[in-house]
Amino acid sequence: MLYVSLACRLTLVAVMALAAVSKLRSPGVFAASLEGFDFIPARLRSPLAVLVPAAELLIALVLAVPATVTAGFAIATLFCCGLTAVPVLVLARGKKVTCACFGASETPMGGWHIARNSVLLATAGLGTLVALRLGDGVPAHAPGIALAVVAAGVLTTLIVFVDDIAALFQSPVPAGDLGR
């Protein structure tokens, strides 16, 4: 279970840090993307453009510190509940809103985003449960650590590139429609 916790922890640290950096690198892109969310009051969009990447960095930091891992997982679980609710609300309202979670994107939110955020939520929830059960003092071994690192790398890649992966499963645009 130690290695499951480590894989969850590494995945969340990487995903949250990458998401925050992409938003902070182009703050206008993320702020502009929030305009499409009509369920978020206009007065809250500017503060959210700052608070969301700050929360992502905080989660990554709290999970990176061994003494605060359990709290980090709990905070990540709550945060991921909100992240999962956003594309659900967008789809329920029938809106076409692009996701700027990892930088500018042309892909409107859809089922892939719900799946991605659900995987993040499950990762945070599983990490929380394991961290609460494990406590401190469990010895780690190199092969288990290596496996956890590889698993976290694969999961992080799948999460970050969900728009690109989804595009592989979409119907190609017919050649005659390219110029329209």
UniProtKB/TrEMBL annotation:
It is found in: Membrane. The chain crosses the membrane at residues 47-65, 72-92, 112-132, 144-162. It is a multi-pass membrane protein. Keywords: Membrane, Signal, Transmembrane, Transmembrane helix. Coiled coil: none annotated. This is Methylamine utilization protein MauE. Residues 2-129 form the Methylamine utilisation protein MauE domain. Its main location: membrane. The keyword Membrane applies. InterPro entries: Methylamine_util_MauE. Residues 1-19 form the signal peptide. It holds the Pfam family MauE.
